[in-house]
Write a structure and sequence with these properties.
- With 336 residues, the chain is α/β, with parallel strands linked by helices.
- The protein has 2 domains: 8-117 and 247-272, 3-Layer(aba) Sandwich (D-Maltodextrin-Binding Protein, domain 2), CATH 3.40.190; 120-244 and 302-334, Periplasmic binding protein-like II (D-Maltodextrin-Binding Protein, domain 2).
- It has helices at residues 3-24, 39-57, 70-78, 92-99, 113-116, 157-174, 177-189, 198-206, 218-228, 252-258, 261-270, 274-282, 290-295, 308-312, 315-323, 328-334, and strands at residues 28-35, 61-68, 85-87, 119-128, 148-151, 194-195, 213-217, 233-236, 241-246, 248-250, 286-287, 305-306.
- The strands form 2 sheets. Strands 4, 5, 6, 7, 8, 9, 11 and 12 form an 8-stranded mixed β-sheet that branches. Strands 2-1-3-10 form a 4-stranded mixed β-sheet.
- Helix 2 (39-57) links the parallel strand 1 (28-35) and strand 2 (61-68).
- Helix 6 packs across helix 7 (177-189).
- The protein is globular and about 60 Å long.
């Protein structure tokens, strides 16, 4: 064997050893595509899951996050963003992944407990300290001259829940669809700017000092009060609000292609464990686990709520009647 051949073989073996070592130390990576105001929650969930997965399987995993308006995020996944799991705040943003390209299994609600919703929240009002405009209920949000900050219901689940909470309240108050439409029209006439997601609306209200009230999820309102100081804001609970259950699903088409189905499912299962539910409660979402909820019940004031299914005919009906192109929401904002 010539010297040059020996040298070439040594290089080949060295390269093979390097590649083998690299494969041995390769780390599985999954992407969680989620909505705007769940950033802090998953920043804590991810390392906790990583440790639990390491203990269970002996393998390492990295979980990356992507956040934005809920419907915009769903659109990004349809457009090619390779999410292994999707964790949204409204079921239409998962259903659309079933309808367009079969990215998610049609029976996704049956794959995890509570119709695949590991926690809930509700819609509340955040007002400036001392509540200078004396805002107590939905009726106050339609007063002339008041400015109401909400994210865009066309791109944000947070905004959509605000719209539907107001609609449900108005249905009770007026007893008619026409009355509800008039009420919600007056409310959105008081909205000076429509941000794309819940976090953008928070910035508009808290940092740009625009608006008299921010209508947002309870967990976001609590977070703002904690981070920016209770001396600046107060939380107001309306007489009636909406239950916002946060659905989750494995994006099976992507996970199958990437070989991440097992770890993706384990990631979502972790949300239901006592450890996962404690992190949910830490971030002021309402946990599903009765024992964890009881432990933290003092932070969740009683509030009368309804669900989309109970009062508004379900999400399919709501989507068609209110949020399809040219439907009620578009008609309402076109008249502003």
């Amino acid at each position: 064997m010539t010297h040059s051949l020996k040298k070439s073989l040594r290089r080949s073996f060295a390269a093979l050893a390097f590649l083998t070592a690299g494969a041995a130390f390769a780390q599985t990576t999954i992407l969680n595509v989620s909505y705007d105001v769940s950033r802090e929650l998953y920043k804590d969930i991810n390392p906790a899951f990583r440790a639990a997965w390491k203990k269970q399987s002996g393998a390492d995993v990295t979980v990356n996050q992507s956040h934005g308006g809920s419907s915009k995020q769903a659109g990004a996944v349809i457009g090619g963003l390779e999410a292994d799991v999707i964790t949204m705040n409204q079921s239409p943003d998962i259903d659309i992944l079933v309808e367009r390209g079969g990215l998610v299994a049609a029976d996704w609600r049956k794959q995890f407990p509570h119709d695949a919703t590991p926690y809930t929240t509700t819609t509340v009002f955040l007002v400036r300290k001392g509540n200078p405009k004396n805002i107590k209920d939905w009726d106050d949000l339609i007063r002339p001259g008041y400015q109401v900050i909400v994210p865009n219901p066309k791109t944000s689940g947070n905004g959509r829940y605000t719209y539907l909470a107001a609609w449900g309240y108005a249905l009770d108050k007026t007893g008619s669809e026409a009355g509800a439409r008039d009420f919600v029209s007056k409310l959105f006439a008081n909205v000076p700017v429509l941000d794309g997601g819940g976090r953008g609306a928070t910035t508009t209200f808290t940092q740009r000092d625009v608006g008299d009230v921010l209508v947002t999820f309870e967990n976001e309102a609590i977070l703002i009060a904690q981070e920016l100081g209770s001396s600046k804001f107060d939380i107001v609970y309306p007489s009636l609000s909406i239950e916002a259950a946060a659905p989750v699903a494995v994006v099976q088409k992507v996970a199958a292609k990437r070989g991440t189905e097992k770890v993706a499912r384990a990631y979502l299962d972790f949300l239901y464990t006592p450890a996962g539910q404690e992190i949910v409660a830490k971030h002021d979402f309402r946990p599903r686990d009765p024992a964890v909820l009881k432990k933290h019940v003092a932070k969740y004031p009683n509030i009368r709520t309804f669900t989309v299914e109970q009062k508004l005919g379900g999400w399919a009906t709501v989507q068609k009647a209110h949020f399809a192109d040219g439907a009620l929401y578009d008609q309402i904002v076109a008249r502003k």
